[in-house]
Specification:
heterodimer, A: alpha+beta, Glycosyl hydrolase family fold, GH92 mannosidase fold, 2 domains, five-stranded mixed beta sheet, about 25% helix, globular, B: about 55% helix
Chain lengths: ~350, ~70
């Protein structure tokens, strides 16, 4: 069969597919003879194509297309091709002095011949030239910085955590992202990083940052949302209020205490999915889950599956003023899908 | 395939939306074989005219209250 890209992959499908198939990344200087589109966003397109292919592998598994499972799962590891473990995080202070943070290793653009290029890790974040990265502005990330896109590996967060130096370093880095001004909540790619502390074994910090952003940036004032809504800011707030955040494309919802004493959702197959905070604190000082029970049984995983919303059930949280041990062990973390599991 | 017809911001994000619906057992009115064909076309660049023709035929059939297969 002749393979044909969309003639204009700026509006549908993907571009650079020959490179994607042969090299496993979109090169900065890609030569695409099969279609047209803006030759930009090589980092963000690569990490997104990798996750797109991962999602295809999940569908293939469910539908019995066994060869496709391996093929697309293998491509889902392509994020590693743009991970430059040596890349430093350089920035200028107000006096123009060049400084670097303590973090090393970022997604970076790469040439066709395999050599690295450089885009400043902070460009297109609120702290550095925020508005340089759009559809056709020839930067390697789209509406966000390499700092942001370096967190986009939802298919293998355990692999990313390792690449970033282990759970403790990962949590330090994610905390720095949120506290340094680099994170911008007005754009959707920053939603998941509010919750990615779950993968570092610190679900309490996800709750901490959820409460930092709501209500400070999401509230009932005239400018009560960051950025524009596009339906997403409202959806984000609703999910944060209810205490579960979906990792889209996977059967995974990350858990935090709801902002209400109880949330009830009608279950698809009848009955209700109920999430309760037994000792609810309206001041939200107590915003850290200490223990949980699912249908009466102790539940230590920091995530649930869609089954809860299909069949219904009762999820009870007990909360406290400091982080506890709930949801922090390796076996409590959401799933990661490294290549090893199916032998590459 | 993008979620909205318009400028594609990054990847072919409809792949994620389609997989999400599949994994969460949405079934009503969905032709999963056709959906699978669509995500593969994103990943492989299969002849898009063929796919579009099939999709349009499917939409027409649906509008005429006929089975789409």
């Amino acid at each position: 069969m002749r393979l044909v890209e969309p003639r204009n992959w700026g509006v549908e499908g993907r571009g650079g597919l020959v490179s994607w198939h042969d090299l496993g990344y979109i090169p900065w200087n890609d030569v695409d003879q099969n279609g047209t589109g803006p030759a930009s966003r090589s980092i963000s397109r690569s990490v997104e194509y990798a996750y797109d292919d991962f999602c295809i592998s999940l569908m293939a598994a469910g539908m019995g297309h066994h060869e496709d499972v391996k093929k697309y799962h293998k491509r889902s590891a392509n994020w590693k091709n743009l991970w430059n473990g040596e890349q430093r995080d350089l920035f200028q202070d107000e006096d123009g002095d060049v400084l670097q943070s303590e973090f090393r290793g970022f997604m970076m653009p790469k040439m066709l011949n395999g050599t690295w290029r450089y885009q400043n890790t902070r460009t297109c974040s609120p702290v550095h030239e925020m508005h340089r990265c759009y559809f056709d502005t020839a930067m390697d990330t789209y509406e966000g910085s390499p700092w942001l896109y370096s967190f986009f590996v939802p298919q293998d967060m355990a692999g990313l955590v390792d690449a970033m130096g282990g759970k403790e370093r990962f949590v330090e880095r994610l905390s720095y992202f949120h506290s340094s001004g680099i994170a911008y909540m007005g754009n959707e790619p920053t939603f998941l990083p509010v919750y990615q502390f779950h993968y570092g074994g610190r679900p309490g910090l996800s709750s901490y940052w959820a409460h930092e952003y709501i209500p400070s940036q999401f509230n009932a004032s005239i400018n009560g949302i960051p950025g524009n809504d596009d339906c997403a800011m409202g959806a984000f707030s609703a999910l944060v209020f209810m205490g579960f955040f979906p990792v889209a494309g996977q059967d995974v919802y990350l858990l935090t205490p709801p902002f209400f004493p109880e949330v009830r959702i009608r279950a698809k197959l009848g009955g209700w999915a109920v999430i309760r905070v037994r000792n609810f604190d309206p001041t939200y000082e107590a915003k850290y889950i200490q223990s949980a029970r699912l249908n009466g049984r102790a539940y230590t995983k920091n995530w649930i599956t869609h089954d809860f919303f299909l069949r219904g059930g009762v999820l009870d949280f007990t909360v406290g003023n400091v982080e506890g041990s709930w949801g922090t062990r390796d076996e409590d973390l959401p799933p990661s899908f490294p290549l090893l599991e199916i032998g590459g | 395939m993008s979620f909205c017809k318009g400028f594609t911001q990054g990847g072919s994000n409809a792949d994620i939306v389609v997989a999400d619906a599949y994994i969460k057992n949405l079934t009503e009115g969905i032709d999963w074989d056709l959906a699978y064909e669509a995500v593969l076309s994103d990943a492989e660049g299969k002849p898009h005219l063929l796919l579009n023709r099939r999709r349009f035929a499917c939409i027409e059939a649906t509008h005429a209250n006929k089975r789409c297969d």
